[in-house]
Specification:
InterPro entries: AAA+_ATPase (IPR003593), ABC_transporter-like_ATP-bd (IPR003439), ABC_transporter-like_CS (IPR017871), ABC_transpr_LolD-like (IPR015854), MacB-like_ATP-bd (IPR017911), P-loop_NTPase (IPR027417). The chain is α/β, with parallel strands linked by helices and about 350 residues long. About 30% of the residues lie in helices and about 20% in strands. The structure holds adenosine-5'-triphosphate. The site of adenosine-5'-triphosphate (ATP) has 12 residues, from strand 5 and helix 4.
Length: about 350
């Protein structure tokens, strides 16, 4: 491996210096560096596992990211896993395409077709307070969220989930780094523009449904449109109401509905403006198990059937298992990703986060 080549090849169980595949793996990586940077995929490298610092991507025009990165070469593609040392193993089920598209350092970001990502965070840090009492709630989050995906954010208490959500949704400003919604850099907006953006381009679903009891279901759902002075898109609203199963409740007040129905109204309201991302904060926290499952099925459905993008913060591995992908936070950093995780696997991964 030439010294200027920035990958470190270190695997196959034979150790860095004895690995007979090392040279070949380095050749494959070098030949594919531009394509790795663009798409996260590597062709022709089956059988190699490579630990590589992300500096490799700097050579192809990517911003530097300091933490380790691993490429698992599978059937002609690579899988991109993140974490420290062998912990990355736990994420090795992340499909190459998904990993390249979703998680920290979206390798294809600069070459990505316009509009492929609903939102992107790049090196986002958030520090509360100053000096000795400063709390570093986020320590450099880099994440790209593809349109039409359902992402769950999990982590121990205090790991930064709420701070992440607030920064990603434009409710709070990062101390460093950037947040983009589509192509809009939130740092370029003043407070009035941010309010407009949150109203028109982001949907929110909270644990406490935050419905207005003075309004009936129909008016609660269309409230964001009225605030944004947008005329209702009839067919879209009909579709939302049909999907959330509230067609026969439109004239009711929230207090006349069950908790699950109220949360479905909140989801319909979040969708009314066709937002680019719906941020959901513990959306099933106040619901019983069965009703909670129905709400999660609905969230998954609005992604799969309606092409919406949902980012959900949750403590619940069962809830997270409804997402396409789970991002684990620990101590303000991305500690890994799991795709299509079962509740058992997600719970198991959570138990290791404290050690991360
Ligand atoms: N306004 C604030 N001022 C100071 N510290 C804060 C503030 N908000 C959050 N923090 C701190 O930032 C860290 C991350 O908090 P955050 O609420 O994002 O974590 P979380 O993962 O959502 O936690 P939980 O699961 O308990 O809700 C914590 O140490 C918290 O005490």
């Amino acid at each position: 491996m030439e010294s200027h080549f920035p990958f470190t090849v270190d695997s196959c169980g034979a150790g860095r210096h004895r690995c007979h595949r090392r040279r070949a793996a380095a050749r494959v990586l070098r030949a594919n560096a531009p394509s790795i940077a663009r798409t996260g995929r590597v062709r022709g490298g089956a059988g190699y596992t490579v630990k590589a610092p992300l500096h490799c991507l700097v050579t192809a025009g990517r911003a530097p990211i300091s933490w380790p990165h691993r490429l698992d070469f599978g059937e002609g593609d690579c899988q991109v896993a993140r974490g420290r040392g062998s912990r990355a193993e736990q994420d090795s089920a992340v499909p190459a395409e998904a990993a390249a598209e979703t998680v920290a350092d979206p390798a294809g970001e600069t070459a990505a077709p316009r509009g492929r990502f609903a939102a992107r965070l790049d090196g986002v840090e958030k520090t509360y307070g100053k000096g000795a009492g400063a709390v570093h709630a986020l320590r450099g989050i880099t994440l790209a969220i593809p349109r039409g995906s359902f992402l769950a954010i999990m982590g121990p208490s205090g790991s930064g989930k709420s701070t992440f959500l607030h920064c990603a949704a434009g409710l709070d400003q990062p101390t460093a780094g950037s947040v983009l919604l589509g192509d809009t850099d939130l740092a370029t907006l003043d407070e009035a523009q941010l309010t407009m953006l949150r109203r028109e381009r982001i949907g929110f679903v909270f644990q406490a449904y935050n419905l207005l009891n003075a309004l009936d279901v129909r008016d609660n759902i269309t409230l964001p449109l009225r605030l944004a002075e947008q005329s209702p898109d009839g067919p879209w609203l009909d579709e939302i109401v049909r999907q959330v199963g509230l067609a026969d409740r439109l004239g009711h007040r929230p207090s006349e509905l069950s908790g699950g129905q109220q949360q479905r109204v909140a989801i319909a309201r979040a969708l009314a403006t066709r937002p680019e991302v719906v941020f959901a904060d513990e959306p099933t926290g106040a619901l019983d198990t069965r009703t909670g499952r129905q709400v999660l099925e609905l969230l998954r459905h609005v992604v799969d059937a309606m092409g919406q993008t949902v980012v959900m913060v949750t403590h619940d591995p069962v809830a997270a298992s409804y997402a396409h992908s789970v991002i684990f936070l620990a101590d303000g950093q991305v500690a890994g990703e799991m795709r299509d995780g079962t509740p058992e696997r997600i719970a198991e991964r959570m138990t290791h986060l404290g050690e991360w």
